[in-house]
């Protein structure tokens, strides 16, 4: 999935993208209830606004980013 994320991120260069192994950052995984892998989280102003797990719906993620891009 990393290559898919990298390809998707090329369309959104203004978004900061971070990747982490949930086992290496267990406290973050616990705080955000990350049980499945992979999981993508989208934050806006420090709040989670979208979550995708296992099978990522890239079209849905694009719609959400477009929606928040107008704010």
From the N-terminal CA to the C-terminal CA, the straight-line distance is 29 Å
| Strand tally | 2
Q: Count the domains.
A: 1
Mean pLDDT: 83
> Could you state the order of secondary-structure elements as H and E?
HHEEH
Strand content: 15-25%
Structural class: alpha+beta
Q: Which sheet architecture does the biggest sheet show?
A: 2 strands, antiparallel
The geometry reads as globular
User: How many distinct helices?
Assistant: 3
Strand order of the largest sheet: 1-2
Low-confidence parts, pLDDT < 50 over ≥5 residues? Answer: none
Helix content: 25-40%
Radius of gyration: 12 Å
Overall description:
This protein has 71 residues and is of the alpha+beta class. It has one domain. Helices cover 37% and strands 18% of the residues. The protein has helices spanning 2-9, 26-31, 58-69, and strands at residues 39-44, 47-53. A two-stranded antiparallel sheet has the order 1-2. The longest helix is centred in the C-terminal third of the chain and has 12 residues, at 58-69. The chain is globular, with a radius of gyration of 12 Å. The mean pLDDT is 83.
Compose a concise summary of this entry:
The chain is α+β, with helices and mostly antiparallel strands and 71 residues long. Helices cover 37% and strands 18% of the residues.
Primary descriptors:
single chain; 71 residues; alpha+beta; 2 strands
Question: What order do the helices and strands come in, and which of them pair?
Answer:
Blueprint: H1 2-9, H2 26-31, E1 39-44, E2 47-53, H3 58-69
Antiparallel strand pairs: 1-2
């Amino acid at each position: 999935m990393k290559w898919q994320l990298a390809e998707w991120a090329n369309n959104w260069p203004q978004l900061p993208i971070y990747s982490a192994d949930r086992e290496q950052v267990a406290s973050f995984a616990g705080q955000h209830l990350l049980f499945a892998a992979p999981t993508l989280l989208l934050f806006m102003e420090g709040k989670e606004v979208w979550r995708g797990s296992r099978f990522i719906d890239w079209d849905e993620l694009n719609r959400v980013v477009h929606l928040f891009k107008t704010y």
